[in-house]
User: Fold this.
Amino acid sequence: MNYIISEFSHTCKVIGLTSIGVDGEGRDVVTDTDKPRIYVSKGSLIATSKVCVLGSDITKEILDVTDICTPMGNVVIFRALSDGYVELVGPSINSQIKYICKCLNDYGADLAIVDGALSRKTLGSPSVTDATIFCSGAILNNNMRKAVEQIVFESSMLNLHRVEDKKFFSLYDDIKDCKVCIVNKDYTYKNLNIGTTLNTHKEVYDVIHDNSKYIFINGAITNNFIENFMKCGEKYKDVTVLVKDSTKIFLDKDIYDKFIKLKGCIKSVDKINLIGISINPTSINGYSFDEYGFIDSIQSKTDISVFNVMNFKY
Assistant:
């Protein structure tokens, strides 16, 4: 994020910043390691908690005090009237982030950036943000091959294929609020009237028949559901599981690979716009990978651009 801010500062445009967690503090509260602080230029728009606003020594113009609460106070939107460091604490609910981004744009931001957080990918949903950069690196595993495998898998999940079926989309407005819905080959459908996929794999499986085409699940796809779904029989091979978007998929690589190998299929209704994979070849645990080998190994397995922002070659 600091790299994007720095590059954007060379333009005459206004940047807006917020976060779904805590960012910009001098020391990471999770890993207890040093962390880069966030330096903004005069004119930037910031959405952060009241405590962070009061703790920032940059000159500021308060634009809005929202009703959105965080553990560190309500989210405040202000304009930086001088250069300096800021700490970001924003909301963690999708609808609230979407609202904050709209506010930043309404106050004049040409680009609103939402800083992510550890193991949080819901903000990549296309219903919330227009584009996503996936950030990862050597911290995943001290074995480069295993780290590469995990990065490629996670990015491929974010970049999951979208279902291309005009007839399905013609009825999507009618079923989008269903928790689980079976869509048939003639595009009739059945709402299963269940609240969650948790422990309902057999109930879902039992209503699949020869005419079934899609299982639309408006919620999370978990290891438990897919594993038990496969154990029920082989009817899953004749249908496509649809999720609203790929941030709803919470599958381990081995479970997903097994499902696909056994002719299962998962696609998304809305596709995430994954525009890059930013990697760090150095781990906070004291080891590093060869940067070029690391990048090339990932790039050979994906069409998404892979780069290290600390090396301007990429």
Remarks:
- The chain is about 25% helix and 25% strand.
